[in-house]
Amino acid sequence: MDQTNILVLGNNLISNLLRRVLVKNKINHLNFTYPSYETERRFFAIKPTFFKWYSDCFNEDLYNHYAIKHIQIFVDQEELNLKDSITRPFPLFNIMASDYLFSSFSKDLDDIDKVIKADEDLEFVFESDEVIFKNYQISSKIIINTDFRFNKFLQIKPEQEEKKEYDEFAVTASFKTDTNLENRAVQYFRESKILAILPYADHEFSIVLSGLKKGDEKLVDDSGEQLINFIKQQSALASVELSSKINSFPLTLYKIKHDPKLRSLFIGDAGHKVHPLAGQGLNLGLGDIQMIDKLISDKRIIDFGQENCIKKYVMSRSADESIVMNLTDLLDEALVNKSDVFSSLFKYPVKVIEKSELLKKILVRKVI
Fold first, then answer.
1. Which DSSP category does 203 fall into?
2. Helix segments in 38-146, DSSP class H
3. Counting runs of H as helices and runs of E as strands, what totals does the chain give?
4. Of 162, 216, 264, 358, whose CB count within 10 A is highest?
5. Between these two residues, 124 and 347, which has the higher pLDDT value?
6. Cα separations (Å) of 169 from 73, 84, 194, 219, 279?
7. Considering only the top CATH level, what class is 2-45+97-164+253-335?
């Protein structure tokens, strides 16, 4: 039987960054994945703190990013007065393309060890001191899963899953405009919909439009005409030209409650999915990797799958996960679904926040 310290499942941004961390720390591992599928180019808002960690970790910098130095937030017709001083001493975030991130995170990695058939029935046996991947006779100290499709094989009990299916969908797309966007992101909470305009160049931007429900399918027609008209109505952009395919996807809130006795970690989309209104899905996954790097850099830890090690990871990540998940769900209930319970909490949101510089800082750090 082949043996390895860590079995990594998945082939994506998070799995590849994890593998680079393992290589840096000289930890042997194997990587199994499902067949890859073609994905559209996407743009992500990355926190500045990640750039510093990446530079320190790999002794190299990330490039090809567009800094967001200003932000505007509208709730109905009212605008929050967010002074530029709130974003100092560094930009709020940087917009980066998925293909550049993938190539950066994959740098100098060996080929994937095994691509598993999509319909293959997998069997994992969790022992007290190892995990056995019976299909391929591989023993590891821990499984780290980054691909949600593997979850069904990893002995997750129903009570370990916190999930909610929203009666909504979201769309993403990229556009060009004659207007100089001047490093400014804008988010609109209007008409039970949430529109984020995220520039990745002075005259190019991507959008995330959420809160869409049955009857809004017209916004995702191939021509993009309906979506362009919607963007023009909401924003101050006079010229808008579609430059990518329009992608739509259902919205889900999902979180794994780890069992420290099972030698497994669920990170990235395998461990949590959040409402896209905050743009924090990938940032949560990047935070997962940073915590794993901190744990495995501790030379005192020999067995990364031991119960205390998994407990330490879970405790360190739970607060960040809970804040993002609860905040986005609350905003969705209040501003999209107009919940009687929560909408009253947002009856005068702008007036309350306007009076507090602290609340403004929290909002701009967490909402986009």
1. T
2. 48-58, 98-105
3. 9, 19
4. 264
5. 124
6. 22, 32, 11, 11, 15
7. alpha beta
